[in-house]
Amino acid sequence: MIEIRIDSTGDGCYLLYGKDELWKNCVHADFDEHVVLYGNRSYNGCKEASWYKRTMEILNDIDDWDEYPEDLPEKTNAKLKELYDGCRNINDIVVDVIKLLYPNDKFKSGTLTGYSQEDWEYYIVKGDVDTELLEALYFNKISDVTVIDGNDNIDGFITDDDLWEAERNGTLGKLLRERYDIPDEEDIKIYKADGYKKIIDWQEVC
Q1: Core-most of 6, 51, 88, 91, by most CB within 10 Å?
Q2: In terms of DSSP bridges, do strands 142-149 and 120-126 run parallel, antiparallel, or are they unpaired?
Q3: How far apart are CA 167 and CA 154, in angstroms?
Q4: Residue 47 pLDDT more than 80?
């Protein structure tokens, strides 16, 4: 018998609040080079990617000194000038300039949102990054999952969207079996703690 406990109270979330920032590894193995988060002053953001730093250096040089990079082709600098002349603020053209400077790479941009109106953050990602997972982890839209098999415990998480859809469709057991490689012949019991109760009350759901 395997027991699975889903903690939706928000008291867990070890992935988000550990100093080692383990949550980033769940999004991408090289998070800092593939993900940029910025815009909301309430959050520290993530701006370590080399392509973002270079883009901002170029834009700041243009904005402050009207200096264009000497190592870029004239055609590229001409397009840079066209973008700069047509904007009110360099932040408005950051994504366009990144795509101009790195034409062989794939970039995607948008806005992450949480449950509160104040929870938002702009993102730019390079390559294949799961932005739904990024949003869930960044804004704590997850529940802790503990799989108990005898004396062995496996810790993980499930996003709120995945949990809600699985509960609605009656596929929660199937989803967790697949995610944690639990054979069909193995009996499981799933318990969930209600996130709206101050005292944890484990209820069997499957």
Answers
A1: 6
A2: unpaired
A3: 21
A4: yes
Answer whether 108's CB lies under 8 Å from 125's CB: yes
User: String of b and e for 56-67 (b: at least 16 CB within 10 Å)?
Assistant: bebbeebeeeee
Place of tokens 């294949």: 128
Helix and strand totals (H; E) in the chain: 9, 8
- Please report where in the chains the tokens 């499957």 appear, as a residue: 206
Rg, C-alpha atoms of the chain = 22
Residues of the chain with pLDDT > 90, as a percent, come to 77
Q: What secondary structure does DSSP assign to 73-104, as a single string? A: -HHHHHHHHHHHHT-SSGGGGHHHHHHHH-TT
Beta bridge partners of 120: 113
Is residue 167 within 8 A of residue 73, CB to CB? The reply is: no
pLDDT 10s digits, 16-26: 555 557 789 99
CA pair distance 142, 87, nearest whole angstrom? 38
- pTM check: above 0.85: yes
